[in-house]
Amino acid sequence: MIMFIDDHRGEHGVEAICKVLPIAPSTYHHHQAVLREPSRASLRAQRDADLSLKIASCWAASGKRYGAVKVWYDLVAQAKVHHDRISKPQS
Asked: How far apart are CA 33 and CA 37, in angstroms?
């Protein structure tokens, strides 16, 4: 929806589009503010972004062969994340 609003905001305006779509204008404006300045994201969102980078790095280091379970074990073994921070994948 954010991309749709970006594409059409010049023609109709953000508020008019948000009246039709199930999204509040404040949600759109917050998303844009976070894109401009990532430090405005919540702490949880910032930690999630950091964790995503660690997961991608671990997966790339395995030659893109590891699945979710091995990535989980690898991250916990390297003490890059606490075992409670990411849930163990269900087999």
From this structure: 6
